[in-house]
Model the fold of this input.
Amino acid sequence: CVVSADSGPAHLAAQLGVRTLTLFGPTDPVLWAPVGPGARTLAPPAHTPDMAWLDVDTVFSFLASQQWLR
Done:
């Protein structure tokens, strides 16, 4: 799987069918999320002013919930 910020590599991986987790900051994932069968996003709770909500444990928990870790 690919874990990436909202950037070109995330969009490319999603289009190629690779399981992709895209991490969002202030941009709107509804408008800018990668498209593909395995594309998932993590975005901040509403009105969160910084990226303090995003840490390694949050990402690993999400990956585990999707059964993407081996």
